[in-house]
Amino acid sequence: MMEPLEKRLEKAMAELRTAQEAVARTERELRQASFAVLSSDRAVRATVGPQGELTGIEFLENKYRDMSPQELAASVLEAASAARLKMNRHVMKAMAPFTEPSSEVPELKGFELDWEKMFGPEVLREDGEDTARGGQPTPAWRDAIGEDGEN
Fold it and tell me: What is the pTM of this model?
């Protein structure tokens, strides 16, 4: 036996209110989020804010003094990119429940987001998927100066 239309509409409206409250909570949480990541050479820590914007750079243990400008730049870019990727994945995880169909109201199918289009293809890779030798990510500066670290 099918539920009366008024009862189904009441359930849908209650679920909508619950979803709106959850979205508002999630938005507040995301506005406060930030991620900091160390470069693989541990010379730089980059911090990004809630929209993936760079909010801080720290040069650790004076390692930058022994680095070429290209190595330092690559370390900064590596750390900033990794922090931005963490933030993007955090946003995906936080927003995922809002993309799923309703368990209470079958007519509410959820919606589909193209995460790859929004954040780029790397956001869909598993954390350890883009790795080389020994399970460690290949630092960006290795690509820039050659496999063995020499010019």
Answer: 0.70
